[in-house]
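User: Hi! I'm working on a homework problem where we have to compare a predicted structure to a textbook description. Could you give me the structure for the chain below?
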Amino acid sequence: MLDHEPPTGAYKFPSSPIVAEDEPHPDRRERVENIRAMLEYCFPDENRYVEPPEADHTEIERVHDPEYVGWLETFCADGGGRIEDTATGCNGATADAARYAAGAAIAAAEAALDGSKTVPYALCRPSGHHAQPSCADGFCFYNNAAIAAEAAVAEGVDRTAIIDWDVHHGNGTQAAFYDRDDVLFVSAHNDHGSWHDEYHPQEGSLDEAGRDEGEGYNVNVPLPPGTGDRGYDRLFERIVDPIVSAYDPDLILVSSGQDAGPADPNARNLVTRDGFRNLGARLRTLAEKTADGQFALIQEGGYQTSHLSFATLGVFEGVLDRRIDLDHYGYDDPFGRFDEPTALVDEWLEEAVEYHGQYWDWDSVT
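Assistant: Happy to help. Predicted structure tokens:
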């Protein structure tokens, strides 16, 4: 997964004559290398690595069109490159990396279901939640969380909940399960809308709530820029906890993108290490309440490579009920320096509560 390398340019975009030196694409291998270093330093006794198998075509094609899978493999075999006018690109190693990333997500879901009470974590690269059934999108090629959920369904799991706290809308996961009720999808994200008419038509709006049997089971929660620790706690209190509790899943998968942090160049939110610690703790409690403790974390975004380590440490501190006293930093976040505008967050969350109330009885689930 480290060998996947998108093309350089002006940040995530093609080169520009006003930028003298190209820079690495934000989906850099250092992202996951830093997370691994954090895990080895902070949790040396608890930490165990398992090499995942590659996902095979049967597993991938439960989500993705065979024609698209064939196109991606050919495109990468020819050396890859930038996909038309998008910010997504790849090299010759990307198709293999994406198969291993999907395989890691499947293995994490299987580990969650095996009764061992571990905390399965798929350190995936490339990420997956933007990848749609028929196209790559948003640095993603195969939808790791969706493929893992389909693998669970194939093993007889009746209800799976996917919670996506990546700061960007999980449009590919939405597309995969939009007309189904056996997979609940809850996505909290900045209100960025569609960023490409062809490759990213979904907007992540409240009214993209599913269709047919899936109506009401696609729960989008747009968040205003500047949402921080308090806002995400309120998000769980008002929406995530009640809806997931009412759904009562057998398995919870988390699209765990830590790009809602205050230093991320690809986002505008203010969640600190402490806020991610709270998300991890809330996830653990919710899984114990609803899914017999069965949950798995699947890595998505996070593009400030140093803060990604602090934020992901927070998630693991929460799910493991541990606090790590770091030299020079203690329990703090060196990037957490802005106050959160709370009134707008409350206003938007209550709008989401009102909208989704047509599908969920808040009186019975709060």
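For your comparison, note the following. Strands lie at 81-82, 89-90, 121-122, 160-164, 183-190, 218-223, 251-256, 295-299. The two ends are 41 Å apart (CA to CA). Good luck with the assignment!
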